[in-house]
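G., the chain you wanted modeled:
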Amino acid sequence: MVQAAIADVTARIRRRSQPSREAYLARIEAMRNTGPRRGALGCANLAHGFAACAAHEKADLRTGTVANLAIVTAYNDMLSAHQPYERFPAIIKTAAREAGGIAQVAGGVPAMCDGITQGRSGMELSLFSRDVIAMSAAIALSHDMFDAAVFLGICDKIVPGLVIAAQAFGHLPAVFIPAGPMPSGLPNQEKAKIRQLHTEGKASREDLLDAEAAAYHSPGTCTFYGTANSNQMLMEVMGLHLPGSAFVNPNTPLRDALTAAAAQRALAITALGNEYTPVASVLDERAFVNGIVALHATGGSTNHVIHLIAMARAGGIVLMLDDFADLSKAVPSLTRIYPNGTADVNHFTAAGGTGFLIGSLLQAGLLHPDAKTIAGHDLEFYAQEPYLDDGKLSFRPSPSLSLDESVLRGAANPFSSDGGLRVLDGNLGRAVIKISAVTPEHRKIRAPARIFHAQEELEAAYRAGEFNSDFVAVVRFQGPKAIGMPELHKLTPVLGSVMARGHKVALVTDGRMSGASGKVPAAIHVTPEAIDGGPIARLRNGDIIALDAEAGTLTVELSLETLHSRPPAEYDLEAYSHGYGRELFQMFRENASGPELGASVFG
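Predicted structure as tokens:
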């Protein structure tokens, strides 16, 4: 039975969303009623669609009675997480053929890595790449040739973009296929230590590069629990993966078996068979609440406060920050994965992984057990783990007890009684803060503001030795409408170094920090953003800011009359409007919604 707090939030989301959800489902039903779309294509259209196929595939596609599977891929071989996808189309096509179907690569979508663009101009394209990916995937599926789709994507903006596109074609089944994390390398804590030493001038660039190369060392996702791995956990809990798929390492027999099985499952749930499961029926209010619950329980990426809102809106479901806040109060923290601990996702999997996590949350009444999944079972089926039995993919119950309680615990013995995310309110607007990696003594700060309009300004002040007391760094004009809401990770070693010297520090910004948010308290996604004249634009150096993550408040100690009497600061953003392709994204900046609406151009 679902706890009352979970049921209440779900019910209010359903009530709030009813008009938009009903309109969305009516559109999807109209698309479904046309049947397999290939049958409606003209002869020239259809011939174009199968011209490159083998003879027997052409014959099958002519009849319209054999399922055709679209492969939408984010493959490129520069990103470690996506390099394994090079092999996947061949595996999928073979599996489809064995199941009596056909698979075609329908199209590719771009995939960028925030780890590479961090602190660089290209980072300003990152958030909006999600919407580009959604549009690219929609183009891939626009040919009306397909009965289902499999989506190959892992990292930060790729999965949310693919989910948005999948819902635009909500009459089609959609199965997401991960590639898995790289094996463990240099521990994340050691890597972070070298970064801070380099910031302090106590480690050389060669030392730093050696450490980074030892941490990021092979194909697969980075092993810390950032946005990429949060994506994979979400896809599993929301029913779009096969059970236990998220964190199986690349290029292993089990990984390949799961890939083949996912393709065959997608073919089994088309409208041509008896188990029709369109993605619109999977991603309902229960699925999104389950995703938010699991995000809180695992201390996942703050990027998903934005992404889940945008993903839900694509299916007519209206999520609000208050939903995240209220669910966080009800959900205990069950994991300690870096940056919220020392373990990585491979350690998490060894301790019991997603199967144990889902089983524990179900047992505690924190997930909707009746949520529909692509596996043909409700969510209780996902309290399992995959394994190979004489080379054949099988599933068995996940451990009933954690195999390492320093990494993963059950709901009866949590690390903390609530989730690691807070929504902050006050006279500076609204913001989000992730506190699962912030020690209790650093969750409250009252200190003078230091105002910056760029990461580089703050770094220059640090190098000049200006930070010798408590302060709150305000980095503004970083929001979606200003410069695309980049992540500000390069500030973590700087502020962490100041904190290590015994000073209290915090970051307040209308930009992002995301999955690598760590020990420095960071009030992010501040809205209204500075370029819209929000209160953050009216701050001045020396204003006393009070951030209380426990109470959920973010204020400046000024009267509203004084604050609003100040003219908002102005900042010349011309230098951010061109170069590195930024000029091509002007439309996105001009039309982006605020973070509370998903920071999207889709409304």
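The CA atoms of residues 238 and 287 lie 5 Å apart.

Shout if anything looks off.
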